[in-house]
Write a structure and sequence with these properties.
By secondary structure, this protein is an alpha+beta fold. It contains ten helices and ten strands. It has a six-stranded mixed β-sheet, with helices on one face. A two-stranded antiparallel sheet has the order 7-8. A hairpin with a 3-residue loop joins strand 9 and strand 10. The protein starts with 11 loop residues before the first strand and ends in a 6-residue tail after the last helix.
Length: 356
């Protein structure tokens, strides 16, 4: 494991700030109220995350490395105190609360993909227990990884539904933990967009692995099923066609670019980490589509090799990451294989050079 001098104080949410910012200005208080409260809560949690990094997280007992996950689900009971009341632990049967059951299953699905596809034991590689709190706050429009555990809101019911519904949202957020324990990418600018993209990539792979899908079968959507019926959109993001996930009066239009020609220079959203992530997202989709089969077997393995290989700088640019994927494809699959050519072509199609 490489930590590059200490963990970055990252607080990661699945719904981007720019979406909540727009909602917070809506004239309908049923839409603007929950968005404003979510933004305020996110700001508090982001500050708490920084303080935890400075002061140090609570010391946990050394986990036992096992091929089985250690999951615990807590019910926050619509309050803000974490973790809440323990409602399900490893080995217990499903209860009547569907949200608890989905969170439990999602943690397990994430554990299984990393173990079975990459021989990684939990998100830290050392069997870290997976904890999650559900029913967080009232009408909270987000889900997040706070450096220690997962937290899920129930959504406002107007625009967002229960955040445990899409398994890729769970996988996305937990993958921020994997990044935290490996490359520890700085959460700003292109390195921050890579951080977000890696979570989208593996979140999508977790969904595909759970459903037994090939690259051709997958929808390549992040957060499908999360948007309420009134929303004109299908998901939060599309890896296959960035910029097309939603176009809604309240949410606005999906701003993600698919290529460097449309790269967005902005000071908001930590330099556009949720926006420009569409570019490496699209590169991964193009690679997986070209190679076919199960995307975690080749395309996912190349991305995982780069993430965990120790050469990815914490402030890496897109071209740095792309160059390392070419090297990883060459090392794993050789010079003459389709994998290397497909990696080079995918990055070429999105306008990212593969030589730093």
């Amino acid at each position: 494991m490489t930590t590059h001098g200490g963990f970055e104080p990252v607080f990661c949410t699945i719904v981007p700030p720019h979406v909540l910012d727009k909602l917070a200005q809506h004239e309908d208080p049923a839409l603007s109220g929950p968005a404003r409260e979510t933004l305020e809560r996110d700001a508090y949690e982001r500050t708490h995350r920084r303080l935890t990094t400075v002061i140090g997280a609570p010391t946990l007992a050394a986990p036992t490395v096992s091929d089985k996950p250690q999951r615990t689900i807590y019910d926050a009971k619509h309050k803000q105190d974490l973790p809440g009341k323990k409602v399900r632990a490893e080995g217990s049967d499903p209860g009547k609360d569907a949200t608890v059951n989905r969170a439990f299953a999602g943690l397990g699905a994430t554990f299984e993909l990393y173990l079975n596809a990459f021989n990684r034991h939990s998100i830290d590689g050392q069997g870290l227990p997976l904890n999650a709190s559900v029913h967080y706050d009232v009408k909270y429009d987000n889900a997040f990884w706070n450096g220690e555990q997962m937290v899920f809101g129930d959504g406002d019911g107007e625009l967002f539904l229960d955040f445990t519904i899409p398994v890729d949202v769970i996988g996305h957020e937990l993958t921020h933990g994997v990044t935290q324990y490996t490359a520890n990418l700085t959460y700003f600018g292109q390195s921050g967009a890579l951080n977000e993209s890696i979570s989208d990539v593996f979140g999508s792979l977790i969904k595909q692995y759970t459903l037994g899908q090939t690259a051709a079968d997958a929808d390549w959507l992040i957060g499908a099923g999360l948007l309420a019926p009134r929303v004109s959109g299908v998901a939060l993001r599309s890896m296959k066609a960035p910029g097309t996930a939603y176009d809604d009066d309240a949410l606005g239009k999906d701003p993600q670019p698919a290529t460097m020609d449309d790269f967005v220079n902005t000071g908001s959203d930590n330099g556009g980490v949720h926006i420009n992530s569409g570019i490496p997202n699209h590169a991964f989709y193009l690679l997986a589509d070209a190679l076919g089969g199960h995307a975690w077997e080749k395309a996912g393995q190349i991305w995982y090799d780069v993430l965990t290989g120790g050469e990815l700088k914490k402030d890496a640019l897109f071209t740095d990451f792309a160059t390392l994927t070419v090297a990883a494809a060459r090392t794993r699959f050789g010079d003459g294989g389709e994998e290397l050519q497909a990696v080079e072509k995918a990055w070429e199609q999105v306008g990212v050079p593969t030589t730093s």
